[in-house]
């Protein structure tokens, strides 16, 4: 179910890049992991990329924003509202304000509160270290003020980079990410927090345990602060935890067969 059933425009990456010719794209947070990756991929696709990062002074923003057609905020959720307000003060009326935050409900509201022009949310569903490749998915969540051509231009940006796009409402996105991203994080976190410090376990470590430990390492070490922020910023995180607790209650009651049958859904042919 999506807000708008319009499918991804049937543009090749080259057509998409051509449709952006003469339109500058400004990345705010261009020295960050995602911002730098988007600048690099945009430049490689032949787009007119600009970048700004802290400190966002008037002297930095005024020339960078002057002819921007699309502005992508690539900064953490914690500073998002403040950065959006600062940047908007310099944008031309026609600019499309967009973001790549991993949650969508709050950032869309925050952008719409400070920008009367078109607003479009996006979430690249991949990280900065994902090998370049075609078809990496991006969710696009059009704001209230976005016209079809505004949303299409944002989609063209990602398609020019070789990504695929699909549309959803911000609410649909956050409900999905609470389950895919935040529950993945919280269940790893709870499990390894529970077992931490239990030295008596070390002689018993098995290959399957080691596989899970390895799979959780980046998320809980390098990316721990980001995932904590995403958990806190998603309005549906707590509901997702309550759903998970229900599954643990089924296990505690001993109905493991029921859980096994349900879980097989992921691997059925
Ligand atoms: N890292 C990922 O895997 C990933 C994937 C998809 C989306 N995202 C989203 O992308 C956004 C950025 O994530 P990241 O991993 O690139 O973060 P990052 O910390 O690597 O980069 C953030 C950038 O924002 C800049 N910044 C910080 N405070 C600022 C401020 N007050 N004013 C202006 N700039 C400021 C920093 O200087 C930095 O360059 C987040 O909203 C995140 O949810 C991240
Ligand atoms: O590439 C990674 O290691 C990531 O963690 C990327 C990842 C994720 O897989 O959850 C992290 C945050 C983004 O919102 C989207 C993707």
From TrEMBL:
Domain Prephenate/arogenate dehydrogenase residue range list: 23-269
Signal peptide region: none
Pfam family, one: PDH_N
This protein's record includes keyword Transmembrane: no
Alphabetic keyword roster: Oxidoreductase
Classification via PROSITE patterns: PDH_ADH
Class of this enzyme: oxidoreductase
UniProt-listed Enzyme Commission number(s): 1.3.1.12
GO molecular function annotation: NAD+ binding; prephenate dehydrogenase (NAD+) activity; prephenate dehydrogenase (NADP+) activity
Source superkingdom: Bacteria
GO biological process entries: tyrosine biosynthetic process
Keyword check for Isomerase: no
PANTHER family the record matches: PREPHENATE DEHYDROGENASE, PREPHENATE DEHYDROGENASE [NADP(+)]
Name of the protein this chain belongs to: Prephenate and/or arogenate dehydrogenase
The organism of origin for this protein: Desulfovibrio piger
